[in-house]
Request: fold
Amino acid sequence: MKSKKLQSLGGIASILQALIYISAFIVYGGVLTYPSANASTQENLQFLTDNYLTLSILNLIIYVLFGILLIPLVMSIHQRLKNNTPIISKVASVLGYVWVGLVIASGMISNIGLTSVIEMGADNPEKAMIVWSSINIVTEGLGGGNEIVGGLWVLLISIAALSGKVFSKGLNFLGLLVGLAGVLTIYPLELFTEIFGLGQILWFL
Reply:
């Protein structure tokens, strides 16, 4: 693929990823009404059943589509950095592709799990919600609840770009902050996840 075409494709993908983040914040934070913490098993299952289509589409967009869009972005950034910082850029791109796999896998597991849980819930609601809890643990562990791989990718990109004098300093310093926040999501503190998510919107744009 020609250099200019790849750079344009990476730029478009990056903007679309920012819009996906914004959409996720809006839908999860303001559109969906989740059961209370004291909700019964039946109420939680009913929420999943009533919002099956919405949740399935969200998983496809936020995880699967996001992961697919990440591919040209990883490629285009590597192309920009490889001449000045070949080793760091190569390591960063490997992490980027690993993140692609983790993000897509999270969405696929969540969607398949959601369908199975709803089917199971018709006969055994208690067992269905136990399975749903297990599915959430897996998807959160892969990338929904921690952003270590994505954080390392952004961090290494920013280090390479600063070293090679690629991109603006402001963007690179923002990337350092976002990347560090992503790595720190290894600690169970919601603040780091929020900084990574909100910071990445600006970084992608």
User: Anything to note?
Assistant: The longest helix spans residues 86-121.
